Amino acid sequence: VETDHGSGLLWIHDRSTYGGADNRWMHIYIRGMMVARNKHDFLPGWAGFMSGVFESDTLSPTASREDIITDGSYQTAKRQTAKALNKGLADLAKTQPEIWRSILRRHNEALLGAAVADADLFSAVCSDLKIPTSEGEMSLEQIAEKSPKGIAIALHADGGADEIVSRAFGTPVVLGYRYGAAAVSIRYAELNNLKVVELGTQSGHQLLFPRAQASPDITDKLETLFGREDLTLVLSDFEPEFLSCLCFVDAEQSLKTYFESDQADQKIGQGALTLARAFTKKIEEKTPLQMVINLGSPLVQALLTMPDESAKPLAGTLESMARMLCKNKALGADGFAASLHQFNNSLLEMISKET
After folding, report:
1. What is the Cα 220 distance to its own chain's centre?
2. The model's pTM
3. Nearest 5°: phi and psi at 256?
4. What is the torsional sign of CA 197, 203, 209, 213?
5. N or C terminus: fewer CB in 10 A for the chain?
6. How many CB atoms lie within 10 A of CB 178?
7. How many other C-beta atoms can be found within 10 angstroms of the C-beta atom of residue 265?
8. Burial, 272: exposed, middle or buried (Cβ in 10 Å; 0-12, 13-18, 19+)?
9. Per-chain mean pLDDT for the chain
10. Residue 330: DSSP 8-state
């Protein structure tokens, strides 16, 4: 590293680090004397997987000679060091691919966070970063190639109906709850004019499940077959058509329920809780679960033509399968076992009617 106020040597740790880890140390010398030991802020905030030494003849020590005065010269040296660091990483990626691959194996997660923090670094390394997805680690280009409707990002680990749709299409779902994954993916999409589908949000649902209109007769029949006190029916027409219905938790209702619960009183400070409740108070009270019925599904079309006596067990089978596909929060109070029990009973009822 060469700057207007000195030079130094930086190196990358050979042990693996995580995004939130900071293992750096940085010693600064002035005219051969160590003045600052572990001067963390001399390196960019994201560079927790690096360390180094810096020698200067122009920086100024404090009166105790145990630290450095953070004047204009110090700030200039910091900026120039950060610029040299970005260039060094970019050069490594281009000229020494084997070493660069080794760095990625050890520090990919830390570099995801670094790319978010530094636009220049993002441009230099984004094509090589590995993003955690539902199909394993992939590059951003690979994700974009397999995502014709936009990059799908799961914001929560528990999945949901929209994640099921994305995976049914063969679209990799970015695990956005992992360190740096969502921010890097969103920035990449913005730079390349790609859509982003944030799974688990209202906007994501509207993109994946466009609302469809149906006649009163069809609506009444579906309400009879699927209507529950804890469930709101949403009529849609989406692909793939082999997904007949899906169940998901209304994210806004979950938020409203949590912030208005006694549990929130115990875990959140009164000031923050008051602000949160002022927001959730504006959310309209609805049922916690939504069932999306795919009117474009051949199975749903067949269901609509069947007499109620035959349609009810098939509807029960579809509902229980929808709840099981969409993981724990959509399973209801009795959980997976109850949904599996309903699925089994509905199949038995269908068989008995045939025999």
Report:
1. 38
2. 0.69
3. -65, -45
4. negative
5. C
6. 16
7. 11
8. exposed
9. 83
10. G
Contacts by residues 17-21 (CB-CB < 8 Å, ≥ 24 positions apart) = 17/48, 17/49, 17/106, 17/107, 17/109, 17/110, 18/109, 18/110, 18/179, 19/109, 19/110, 19/112, 19/113, 19/179, 19/180, 20/179, 21/48, 21/49, 21/110
Angle at 135 between CA 120 and CA 123, to 5 degrees: 10
Specify the residue for token string 């474009």. 296
For 203, the token pair is 């906007």
- How far apart are the C-alpha atoms of 109 and 183, rounded to whole Å? 12
Question: What 3-state DSSP class applies to 49?
Answer: coil
Q: How confident is the model at residue 222 (pLDDT cuts 50, 70, 90)?
A: very high
The string of DSSP codes covering 86-155 is HHHHHHHHHH-HHHHHHHHHHHHHHHHHHHHH-HHHHHHHTTT--EEEBTEEE-HHHHHHT-TT-EEEE-
Give the DSSP H/E element, type plus range, for residue 77. helix 72-95
Q: How far apart are CA 39 and CA 246, in angstroms?
A: 54
HSE-CB of 107 using CA atoms within 13 angstroms: 25
Going by C-alpha positions, the residue among 240, 225, 211 that lies closest to residue 304 is 225
CA dihedral 68, 69, 73, 74 (to 10 degrees): 50
Strands 50-56 and 136-138: unpaired
Q: How do residues 98-119 score in pLDDT, each as one tens digit?
A: 998 898 888 888 888 888 888 8
**Of 38-47, 67-76, 201-210, where does the model show the most confidence?**
67-76
Give the residue-averaged pLDDT of 204-215.
84
**One-letter amino acid for residue 212 of the chain:** A
Query: What is residue 355's three-state secondary structure?
Result: coil
Give the pLDDT confidence of 239-289 residue by residue, as tens digits. 888 888 887 776 666 666 667 776 666 677 777 777 777 777 776 666 667
Q: For residue range 49-91, list pLDDT tens digits in order.
A: 889 999 999 999 988 888 899 999 999 999 999 889 888 888 8
| Amino acid at residue number 275 | L
> First-to-last CA distance in the chain?
82
The identity of residue 65, as a single letter, is R
Long-range contacts of 99-105 (CB under 8 A, 24+ apart): 100/128, 103/12, 104/128, 104/129, 104/130, 105/16
